Amino acid sequence: MLALESIKTQVEQAIPGAKLEIVKNDAPSAQHSLLVNNTSGLAVAKYLRDEPSWRFDYASNVTGVDWPELELTEKIKVKKVVDGVEKEVEEVKKTVRPGYLETVYHLYSMELKHGPLIIRLRTENRTDKVHLPSLTPVWRGAEFQEREIFDLYGIVFDGHPDLRRILMWDGFKDFPMRKDYAEPDDYEYEPTPHDEVLDKAKQHYPAGA
Amino acid sequence: MDEGLRSELQKQGVFTTTLEDLYNWGRKNSVWPLGFGLACCAIEMIAASMSRWDLARFGAEVFRPSPRQADLMIVAGTVTKKMAPQVVRLYNQMPEPKYVIAMGACAISGGPFKQGYNVLKGIDRFIPVDVHIPGCPPRPEALLHAFMTLQEKIDQQQLTGEGRARHLNADQPSEFPVPEFGEHDLQPPNNPAVWKAPVLKR
Fold first, then answer.
1. For a disulfide at A117, which of A101, A107, B60, B114, Cβ 3.0-4.6 Å?
2. Over its length of 202 residues, how does chain B's per-residue pLDDT go in tens digits?
3. Measured between beta carbons, which residues in chain A are less than 8 angstroms from residue B199?
4. Pairing relation of β-strands A114-122 and A33-36?
5. Does residue B69 contact residue B94 with C-beta atoms inside 8 Å?
6. In chain B, which residues touch A (CB < 8 A)?
7. Quick one: A6 exposed, middle or buried, by C-beta within 10 A (0-12, 13-18, 19+)?
């Protein structure tokens, strides 16, 4: 595992305006990643590829993640005066984490034989501000994968040489990998339905059945 | 002609037949498939045509590269919604008489990818299928069995009368509408003239 702290400080020193944040992964794999701010995404990528001590010359995988709006509940202890007596009362505090879309790049160095370094870029929201810088000019292999993310998640990559849908047809309007994607209702024939499919198939059962 | 009389005559060295039998016998033993595969089932289809299983025994070794020369379409593999219009168009381009074998779980129902956003739940929603083969993928033996089933079906086809074969009935369609790409799904999502959802007893 690479020392993310030192990469973070080096990048922030080398590129003015770059803001990196370490995203912890609590799973046993402990693959922590670096969250890069959008505006300096391209510069950071160029630096990581060209800097002699890092030389991340290979983007092995690019993928997207959809983070819908999430309501977080938190229990906090608050001191309150109840009937003239000060008491500690538990209160439920609700906060809403706004939704966003994310791209994840897995970088390796063929030359120095190290990696992976995982960097993330996040959009501002899931509806209208879904632009991210394309890293295809830095790693050519990201071209089709960014097209796939554009196709399935709806992230628009600025600076991509040929941003078209790749799996779905051009006139298709939805983004199938988003959590709130509603697929067309073609559940009229389900011989062995179960779980969610059962609920959808039941809509098609003849009345009285 | 009476079957008993015919076999009795055959024993005496007199061979009789009907035009229907002769015509169907010729057709069923020279079914040329369209050389086209969509996924892993195509590998089994190729294996079936090679020496170990030898589809040539049934007169079907000539996989044609053009739909204009083919009699049989083996839909071997997952039909994605993006591919479906092309499959229907290829079928339309084949000359009558033409037959379809839907090979494998995907081609008959969508298979393991049924709930996917881009998978057609069976090619029989758009074109008439003569033989369905289950399996994922079906072994070459299953394809051979389907092929023999198709041969039997061809053998049973009548040349005249009400129940005559489709290609001899001018009222029956030979081409089927090609679905268009819509904003959310294929338009139409299925062809009601070809496919109706089976009613299941629950």
1. A107
2. 788 998 999 999 998 888 888 999 999 999 999 988 899 999 999 999 999 999 999 988 889 999 999 999 999 999 999 999 999 999 999 998 999 999 999 999 988 998 888 999 999 999 999 999 999 999 999 999 999 999 999 999 988 888 888 888 888 888 999 999 999 999 899 999 999 888 877 7
3. 206
4. parallel
5. no
6. 82, 115, 117-118, 121, 181-185, 189-190, 197-200, 202
7. exposed
